[in-house]
Request: fold
Amino acid sequence: MTIMCPTPNKVSAGEVIEFLQRAFKAKIGIGKPRGGSAQLFSKLKKQIDKNGEIHLNEKAQKIIIENGIVTNIKTDKATYCAQNIIFAASLPLVLDLLGNLLLPKATLDYANNIENSSSLTIDFITDRPVTNIRSSTLGVDIPIWARFQSNTDDSFTPHGKYISTWGIMLPWYFDGDTKTVEQTEKRLKDTITTIFPDFLPMVIKERKTVVPVMNGNVLTTAQSKPHRPNIECPTIKGLYFIDDTVKGDGCSGDISFSSAMIAADKILGV
Ligand SMILES: Cc1cc2nc3c(=O)[nH]c(=O)nc-3n(C[C@H](O)[C@H](O)[C@H](O)COP(=O)(O)OP(=O)(O)OC[C@H]3O[C@@H](n4cnc5c(N)ncnc54)[C@H](O)[C@@H]3O)c2cc1C
Reply:
């Protein structure tokens, strides 16, 4: 976990302090599931399948509310009755499913003005390991990161092939401009060449991905935890928000996980 922000001078000092406190308390760096995070989802699915159902490839289109209480969720394939509805995507997307008037004004304003980050990632395949580094590498002045997945988990790649993934944040207010992507790619590759001069000539295949929303909520002062919307919607009974834009703890994916755990406790009355 770390605080990702394209411009360090916009980061909330309180979030940085809380991040450091959590990191010291944890006493370990990061752990990754062997074979990638698919393992987490397959284990969760196994539990859900015992008492419930999962419907995939179905787009939620409307949350139906009667007298301030959720009653149904309509998708592009069916309508389901629901006592509780958990919206697990970036808050601005819920506006398509709900009438604007139903949300508290503060939540609506927050969702309409949210600042997210964007990034460019490149997966590089080589025939030889690039380095023996097993951990992730992070840039401070240049907002880049690298993971050498084959060094920590050889099940990631076929025998004799190595993958490393590099990412760089795109500038604030990235709007899909291809010139910006080209310049950012050059900056990333120049940085890689400075660190590992022999790396890029070794690459046999690369895959580029432009990610319009990397962190749904950059941890600026205005978007730090005290300002983020509540997990339990105060104006609609039975509606919960869990994702990286609401009042969970930590940064990025941690906010999503922690907000999900808080919502589960609230629903179960724990
Ligand atoms: C390259 C990259 C590297 C990252 N690295 C890290 C990291 O190391 N650590 C970290 O903590 N975070 C990291 N992040 C950020 C992290 O991925 C996000 O914070 C996290 O995925 C947010 O999770 P989420 O469940 O809130 O939302 P999402 O992962 O965005 O999931 C929301 C899901 O809802 C679906 N959806 C949206 N609307 C609807 C609808 N109407 N009906 C049905 N489904 C819908 C979407 O398709 C999506 O699958 C990284 C992100 C990127 C792009």
Q: What stands out?
A: Residues 1-27+56-116+216-270 form a domain with the FAD/NAD(P)-binding domain fold (CATH 3.50.50.60). The two ends are 27 Å apart (CA to CA).
